[in-house]
Amino acid sequence: MTTGFVWDERFAWHQQGTMPLGSDAEPYPGPDTPETKRRIYSLIQTSGLGSDLVTLQPRRASDTELQRLHDPVYVERVRAMSDAGGGSVGETVSIGEGGFDIAALAVGGCLVAIDAVLEGRVNNAYALVRPAGHHAEISRGRGFCVFGNVALAALHARATHHVQRIAILDWDVHHGNGTEDAFYTDPNVLTVSIHQDGNYPEQRGRLEDRGDGAGYGANINIPLAPGSGHEAYLAAIERVVQPALRRFRPELIMIASGVDASARDPLGRMLCSAETFRSMTDRVMASADELCGGRLVACHEGGYAPTHAPFCTLSIVETMARTRTGVIDAMATRLANSPGHALQPWQTEAIDAAANLAGDVPTGTASS
Ligand SMILES: [Zn+2]
Questions:
Q1: Domains of the chain
Q2: How far does residue 310's CA lie from ligand 1's centre (Å)?
Q3: What percent of the chain shows pLDDT beyond 90?
Q4: Considering the entire predicted model, what is its pTM?
Q5: If you average pLDDT over residues 322-341, what whole number do you get?
Q6: In whole angstroms, what is the distance from residue 54 CA to residue 51 CA?
Q7: Average pLDDT value for the chain
């Protein structure tokens, strides 16, 4: 089993800036700091996992590649802002001087991961990129996201490798609005988002948003109440995601892999541990083995807990590489011993409601 891995030091040079707190509160560094991503990379190396991975060198996505999703006017606006020293490129998203190249490199990191998997050079791949992408819209950035990394990678798979049916599972704690929008009328891309109900963006990620036109049924939202953890996430994967994948029969599975459902994340109120991410990855890999020859590409999204995001991400990549380093997430035991961790009735209700939608997923016949 070989797993490709993408990282570039320049991803840490992206400048998201400070969190707006109003004029009365002292400015404070925003949660999307370089440090968290560097610490993820660091743990992957110090754990010994790094030596088991195939290093994939990212490249900058071209304008043509970016424009598969984004309005050319927006692409030019990001470039101009980057050249002018940086600033806002949408809602709650900024870049610094040279930020265009870093954002294009993050997209390109996901594209090379797609190439490596679809050309059979690796079995699967994890792209640890920054800035994140799943909130980015066609003509503006949003929520720390400049360009739609995962959506662009899926479009690249289609344009370059002639892969038609792609499933994208987004387990970032926030709703994957940009990815949902990109494929809302497309029956050949199944988008599934598991997220904290009512978090970000506002009014997005509702159960009733199921796609439109020919794409109706190919979008599933699984909004979970704050406080959901290991059991709820696994139930969502087993009762909703896996049946939907089986019905859809993708040729490639992608994960928008935010780890901000971690119990320590400042931007989420969920209770997942590294063991949750390990189990979810294990289940998705089983589906990939069953349906599409194991072809799986994960693109990193959010995750803002400097002391916990590294453990969560490590467990995902370990699982993809079918290995264990022996690194333990101390939070996992603490959470498992917490009362109320078993599946709660309101969680079951939310998951059952989403499970009912899986029967409307457009069926496919593709197989490995
Ligand atoms: Zn997020």
A1: 3-360 (3.40.800.20)
A2: 15
A3: 93
A4: 0.97
A5: 92
A6: 8
A7: 96
What 3-state DSSP class applies to 282?
helix
Summarised one tens digit per residue, pLDDT across range 222-243 is: 999 999 999 999 999 999 999 9
- CA–centroid distance, 368 to ligand 1, in Å, is 32
Catalytic, 135? Answer yes
Question: What Rg value do the Cα atoms of the chain yield, rounded?
Answer: 19
- Say how many Å lie between the CA of residue 260 and the centre of ligand 1: 6
Instruction: Return the pLDDT at 365.
Output: 62
Span from the CA of 364 to the centroid of ligand 1 (angstroms):
30
- Whole-angstrom CA distances from 46 to 130, 257, 279 are 21, 21, 22
Classify residue 323 by burial, with Cβ atoms within 10 Å: 0-12, 13-18, 19+: middle
Q: What is the pLDDT of residue 368?
A: 42
Instruction: Give the pairing type, strands 141-142 and 28-29.
Output: unpaired
CA of 145 to the centre of ligand 1 (A): 10
What's the CA gap between 304 and 261, in Å, rounded? 10
What local confidence, expressed as pLDDT, does residue 40 receive?
98
User: In 3-state terms, what secondary structure has residue 305?
Assistant: coil
> To which residue do tokens 């599934």 refer?
192
313: number of CA atoms within 13 Å, CB side?
A: 37
How far apart are the CA of 213 and the centre of ligand 1, in A? 28
Nearest alpha-carbon partner for 3 in 127, 149, 163? 127
pLDDT above 60 (res 366): no
Sign of CA dihedral 137, 161, 127, 354: positive
pLDDT at 178: 98
Q: Which of 135, 156, 195, 308 is catalytic?
A: 135
Residues around ion ligand 1, judged by CB within 5 A, are 172, 174, 258, 260, 302
pLDDT digits over 19-48, tens only?
778 899 988 889 999 999 999 999 999 999
